[in-house]
Fold this protein.
Amino acid sequence: MSIALIVTLALIGALLLYGVLIYNNLVSLKHGVSKAWANIDVLLKQRHDELPKLVETCRQYMKFEQETLERVMRARNQVQAAREAHDLRDLGQAEGQLRLGLGSLFAVAEAYPELKANETFQHLQARISGLESSIADRREFYNEAVNANNVRIEQFPDVIIARLFAFKPFELLEFADEEKADVDLRALFGQH
């Protein structure tokens, strides 16, 4: 064999090896996004299961606050529908509505000392607040995984392998503008 042929085969082998490394890295990033989403999904399901218990506990004390309770349940159902449809845009908007509803619910609960003293309410409030914090943390990890994936599939030379094997970008999980805005405490407590 000639030296030119050996060099050519070595270059082809190195390029193939490099292509395999890029492919494997892209697969790892794609599965990282799936794993990050699964972590959020578990927390959303847990919160979904806890909210009816909280609303029922509140309903026993908050006879005149049905609109607040219904708003929380409507938002809960919207979150569930968006989660099941894997629609991140609708999920972000529904999450914003749910968080606003929960904020209103917890603020209104301040006016009901018996409810605030109820052990079940305290447990559920702490549980849901903990889940909210965990969801926010996991959302950050998810968005980091999505960003890492989306950047890599656009960078050269990774873009060649990404297009060749149909790697697609993922959508960031962003919540509605209402959630990002400052909370109006006067509105929550009914003061104008």
User: Anything to note?
Assistant: The chain has one domain: 3-188. Residues 179-192 have pLDDT under 50 and may be disordered. The longest helix spans residues 3-61.
